[in-house]
Design brief:
Strand content: 25-35%
Number of helices: 5
Helix content: 25-40%
Distance between the termini: 117 Å
Length: 430
């Protein structure tokens, strides 16, 4: 009997179909497992912007990204580890906030920047370290505390050719050393004093890594080195480290003196070449009697002491005035940052873009210093409608949200001004 077109298939074809079905089921299961893994929250990822060998002493940006379901609540604390032959430090920049959908969940993330500086050739490992943070899956949901381990991370560095054994290397695109004298020594007399100021500045290198000046011991001169002033500035262009060293010299006895030259060597990562900056030697003559043999009048000492008291009083008054000015400048700068963030949020609110409004809201309350674990800046029903729009992308009453957030901001500004007055301005009748 002949089989028709719809008759029984060949057994080999049946086996092939069964095998193909099994393969498709396995692939689908593997794909689902990968998606579930990607959607696991909370989680932390660590990465580099570039995958390449870095120079010893070069700034290496390391990125740590934290993912949570819902929204972050409160502050994030990192337990920064100590690194053998290296330093890891956190950038002062605010974290970059983002949102995405994973496995049907609304997931928010914070991206933090760290800077790693390695002091040896080869591989440098950041040991396992932890980060503590909290989150809420919804506005009315309880706050959940998290402590997540950041895995071991390894970075490769290379030593510039020609490096000297034990030499600490400044690796950057720009390094400057400027010397000044107050006044510059020429023909001096015993008892005269002068000061040398050495200012160092480097791009993307923290001031703590700058080389210290060599100790000077010159017979006939008293040398007093002050504690160096270290300063790090974080601007849009990046980190700029600054170090200022001041050294006072007092001529004790007559003679010819020479303050030796100083040479600073650094590695230009852009030109891939060594550079040197030399501060020239300074020679001068001192005449007159030895300081120890010069008679000192007691009245002169008393006058000097009284003069120093007046000077100290003026310095103290100047310090108070400088503190007030610095506080005013700080609060004005903070107000400008807050205003910029608030305006950005209101632009997205007017466009009825709930997701971008929420991201801007998080950025604004951070600049405004509002604790996210407390009540939101708007009423509960407006906030609930807003959260639903963020999660689902549906329409929402952006006018009500904008009106209430403006009212809250006015109260916030008023409270900040009152606190500023209490901190900065002393009472009239203490």
């Amino acid at each position: 009997m002949k089989q028709g077109q719809h008759g029984v298939r060949n057994p080999i074809q049946i086996i092939r179909l069964i095998f193909l079905g099994i393969v498709m089921l396995c692939c689908g299961s593997m794909k689902m497992t990968a998606q579930e893994k990607d959607a696991t929250v909370p989680r932390v990822e660590i990465s580099l912007r570039e995958q390449r060998p870095f120079w010893v002493g070069e700034q290496i940006p390391v990125y740590v990204k934290i993912f949570v379901e819902g929204q972050f609540s409160g502050s994030t604390q990192f337990e920064i580890p100590k690194i053998a032959d290296g330093i890891l430090m956190q950038s002062e920049d605010h974290p970059v906030i983002d949102a995405q959908t994973e496995g049907g969940k609304q997931v928010f993330s914070q991206l933090y920047t760290f800077f790693l500086y390695c002091g040896k050739d080869g591989s440098t490992s950041i040991p396992e370290w932890s980060v503590d943070f909290s989150s809420k899956k919804a506005f009315n949901a309880p706050v959940e505390q998290h402590s997540v381990k950041i895995p071991v991370f390894t970075v490769k560095t290379r030593l510039p050719e020609g490096a000297k054994p034990g030499e600490f290397i400044i690796s950057t695109e720009d390094f400057q050393v400027i010397e000044s004298w107050e006044p510059k020594p020429a023909s001096e007399k015993t008892g005269n004093a002068f000061k040398r100021i050495v200012r160092m500045q480097a791009k993307d290198v923290p001031s703590m890594l700058f080389p210290r000046l060599p100790d000077l011991h010159i017979g006939g001169l008293s040398v007093y080195s002050k504690k160096p002033v270290l300063q790090d500035e974080n601007e849009r262009q990046g980190l700029t480290g600054k170090r200022t060293d001041e050294t006072d010299f007092v001529c004790e006895r007559a003679g010819h003196y020479a303050i030796p030259a100083m040479t600073f060597r650094w590695w230009n990562i852009k030109e891939k070449a060594w550079k040197e900056i030399t501060l020239p030697a300074v020679s001068f003559d001192v005449t007159g009697e030895t300081v120890a043999s010069i008679g000192i009048d007691k009245k002169s000492v008393s006058d000097v002491s009284e003069s120093n008291t007046r000077i100290n009083w003026l310095i103290g008054l100047g310090g108070i005035i400088a503190t007030v000015i610095a506080c005013i400048f700080f609060f004005r700068k903070k107000e400008n940052e807050e205003k910029k963030a608030f305006n950005a949020m209101m632009r997205f609110c007017q466009r009825k873009d709930a997701k971008k409004t929420y991201l801007s809201y998080l950025a604004w309350i951070k600049t405004a210093g509002v604790n996210m674990s407390g009540q939101p800046a708007v009423s509960k029903h407006v906030w609930a409608e807003f959260q639903e729009a963020v999660a689902s992308g549906t329409a929402w009453n952006s006018h009500a949200f904008g009106k209430e957030i403006r009212t809250y901001r006015r109260r916030l500004i008023s409270r900040s001004k009152r606190q500023f007055s209490k901190k900065v301005l002393p009472p009239l009748n203490p």
